[in-house]
Amino acid sequence: MAEAKGGKVMSAKEAVQRFVHDRDELVIGNYTVGSCAELCYEIVRQGKKGFTLYSQSGIFDVEVLVAGGCASRLVTTYVLRSGGKKGGSAVERALNAGMLEIEDYTNFDYNARLVAGMHGFSYIQVLEGVMATDLFRKRGFMGENKFRVIKCPYTGKDQLTVPAANPDVCIIHVQRADKSGNAQYWGAMGSVAAAALASKKIIVSCEEIVDHEIIQSSPHLTIIPAYRVSAVVEVPWGAHPTEVLGYYNMDYFMYIGLFSSAAATADGLKAWMDEWIYGCPDRASYIDHYVRRFGSAVLDELRAKPFYSAPANYGSAFTSRWDREGRERSMGVTRPQLEKLLKERGKMYE
Amino acid sequence: MSKAYTLEELLAIAVAKEIHDYENVILGVGVPMTAGALAKALYAPHATLMMESGIVDFRPLLSLNNIADAHSCRGFSYATDLFSTFTATYRGFVDVCFLGVGQVDKYGNLNTTVIGDYEKPTLRLPGSGGAADFISYAKRTVLTMRGGTFVNTLDYLTSPGYLEGGDSRDKTGLFPCGSGPVALISTKGIFRFDPATKEMYLAQIHPGVSLESVKRDVPWDLQVASDLKETPRPTDDEIDFIRDFAPELTAGRELASELRNAHMMKKTDFSQEKVPDGAQVRRLK
To answer: Which helix (H) or strand (E) holds B179?
Structure first.
């Protein structure tokens, strides 16, 4: 990915304007926790339309994108029913209104499609038990291409396969990134890396942008390399009301208390979105609004107490071929000595 | 005589006893999570607890809200991913998994996808998540039931139990032989599956529950074990563990939700004073 003009660091508004388009295949990269709330809200605010939306485990993020009219197709394995058994959900209402088509997979099938896409394969083997279920028998908009059965060329057995997925754009929230896009994420790994790496473009939002040296001292935490990232958006509280490990807990008051009860009805959800999405132009104003309404104590209570990982030693014995005396460690000669020897043997050309 | 208990507590304790020491266990949220923590604390200290989000060998600090909850991430041993957790299950490394029940039929087949028509649902349930793959390949599956229903015919078959019963599951060649559901545990009793017909029967009944009340929930002619046992009363240690770890489970859904709503109302009332300029809300359309 070429470095964006003026660098990759930008606002959520600019990132969505530049890299998310109507009718895209859009994947929510996060799995169950730490969802990219602000990127979803910004997409809703910009009124993007016609997505084929991929979500491994849909929560409020899927509901607001569906209720906001952004998605016409949904590929998923699980969509939380916010309104509970008695209430409705945005997905259920959209299905019944004929505004949304759905394709159901298992967690593994869905993830496997992204893994295939991430590695450049056109399909991938999945776990054949699903062939005994309606997940296999009932086809949505993908029809025959939801699953196909092939013969294993080695064992001759039937194998169940799913097609690769390469979404146009992945939106994802992580703990930290540097300004060129090296994105670090830790905790429940889920399918987060596969969703990002399978995609053609990646928008990363993060709790904080850190110096490149921080990334270099902990490279195992990097799940997306800079060269794949189109935009880096620094958004503190960017996953609220879900949790970000090491930063803040899930906000039950906002999620279960305000969002879920609102999402039970279409009018309730619309009022909630008017207040918390359309009514707040960005995350800073959303947090301001929250603090004005409920005080800062509610948010402060959610802040994570530290529990640091032990530093791992990435050191080596030497950092140079030349020792303190200027001798090469294996040949035992200095650089002038080496050059002299080469000259003597006729190996140097003027 | 041990202390008084709730039926939800009895359910979690019965579920915990399905976990044996040294086993590899896949847990979901709700009852199984509390049961896993209880088993680890009291009966199965060497069990390896795992979640499909890739969190392996963890010990939850408190009852979790979801399978990637931050409170499972303090001091776990292996951070893998979802793909590898399922392939480990496929290869036979998972001894027991636990699944919640939406609709269940007499052969332990499950529906967690939809009630009514698939395209125009009466009730759109969450979907498979990991359920269909786990019940396919874990050596044993334990079904836990708090709000689900027994039906003659599922509206949608999400997760395969014993299919049409008998040897029909094994005959497909799609599953490891002998895998499938071994028990369904509810707040009324424990159901197991006949070794030959694979039909669910009542094996154990919780104290104070009548056979009629169990049968009332089941639309087919439920078979009952000739040696029907009564679930033993929980010990004080078991009860204390659950009340400390998962007080909302002790409270039960109805009371927990009632108290939670009342508590949140207090927060909102208090905060109303902090809205000097509530006029921030802008209507877009």
So the answer is: none
